[in-house]
Known about the structure:
Kinase-like_dom_sf
Amino acid sequence: MPRTNPVPALLSALSLNPSNSTVKAHGGSGFASTFKIETETEDGRKERIFVKTGAGKDAEIMFRGEHESLNAIQQAVPTLCPRAFSHGPLGEGSEQFYMATDFLDLSPSGSSKGESLASKIARLHSTPAPEKYAGKFGFPVPTCCGSTVQDNTWEDTWADFFGKRRLMMIMKESERKNGPDSELRHYVEKTVETVVPRLLGNLKDLKPVLVHGDLWSGNASRGILGEKQDDGMIEEVIYDPSVSYSHIFRAQLPKMILIDGAGKACYAHNEYEMGIMKLFGGFGTAFFNEYHKLIPKSEPLEEYEDRLKLYGLYHQLNHHALFAGGYRGGAVSTMRSLLLKYVENK
C-alpha cells in the first residue's frame, strides 16, 4: 500500500501557508516519523517547528501524553524543555496523528551560562499537582515510556501508585509481550506486597511533585529552545520522557535542556526520578550534591539507596518488556536483594 504524503495534511492541521512553509524529514525515531517545518508568520518572523507523526491509537495516546507532559514541565520551568502547542488527527476521521512543538537545536559542545540542570530539576520537583488533584499521585492522561502505555490513574498514596500503576502494570505488559513468566511474577508480586509498603509507606512529609519520569542521560543536553533561536541562548534542557528527541535536532550553539522529559511525566515522589538516573548513569556526583542541597533526601536517609534501586526496578522491568534480553536477570537480582534485606531477614 503506497504511503500518503503527510505534508499537505500537516500544513493544514497547523494552519500554515504552503507558499511560505517548507517541510523536511528531520532525524528519526523508533516510534514516529519526524519533521522540521520552516515558515514565516504574518508579521514576517521566521519560525521553526518540530513535528512527529504516527498511525493508529498508540500514536494518538503517545502524542497526547507527550503534549500534556511537555507543557506541564514547560509551565513549571520554562527554559527546561520545548513547548508543545498542538496535537491531534491529520484531518477529520484520519488514523494519522501528529504533535507539534517548538524546535530545539542541540549542540554537541559549548557551555551553558544559565541555570544549572540540577537547579532546574529541583525547581521541577517543587511543582505540586494541580489543585483539583492536590495530594494525589498520578497524571491527568496516560503517558508512554518507550511504547509502553503507562496507567496514571490517580491514587491517594505513593505506595499504591508505584505498586499498582508501575510495577504490577509493567508485569502485565511484560507477560503480554513475552509470554507468562511465573517466576518473575512471583518476585514482582512479593515485592509489591512487602518491599513497596516497607520502603515507601512510611516516608516523612511525602508530597506529590512533578517529575519527568524517564530522565536518563540521553534525555538531557544543552541546546537552544525555539523562542531563543535569534539570540543563541544556550540552556540546560531535557526532552521526551519516553520518545527521545536527542537524535533528531541539528545542533547549533550550545544552554542545558530536558529533551525526552515530555512523554512520561507524573506527580510522584521526587526521588522516583533518581531511579533511572542512577541505573543508567551519566549524572555525576556534582549534580546530586547540588540537587540535594536544594531538595534534601527523604527520611529515613539510610534507606535512600534502596529506594532508588526499587525505583530503578520499574525501568529494568520496562526494558525487559520492550527488549527482553538480559534485563530480566537484572530485575530479578534487584528484587532478590531487596526481599532478602527487608523481608526474609526480618
